[in-house]
Amino acid sequence: MTIQAPHHHHDAVAARLKRAEGHLRSILQMMDEQRPCLDLAQQLHAVEKAISQAKKVLIQDHIDHCLEDAVGELDEERRRTIDEFKEITKYL
């Protein structure tokens, strides 16, 4: 595994994951307290969203920075293709 320097948004990804971690702890406590399933499902949904968003930010950041470094200078047509590829990843 290659170790890379942190990307621009690694702090944002870490913050989202810490939020998810806090939600998970809350869910476990709620389960111990025998809270209603609806409450548990809502909190689980929040955890899923936080993790999903963290993954999305990580992937987009990687594409934005590592792809640029890998391809270097490009002619206008290839630059448009790369930009379009980067744009479509926002819909992941």
From TrEMBL:
Transmembrane segments: none annotated. Coiled coil: none annotated. InterPro entries: Metal_Tscrpt_repr, Metal_Tscrpt_repr_sf. One of its GO terms (biological process) is negative regulation of DNA-templated transcription. PANTHER family: TRANSCRIPTIONAL REPRESSOR FRMR-RELATED. Belongs to the FrmR/RcnR family. This is Metal-sensing transcriptional repressor. It comes from Achromobacter mucicolens.
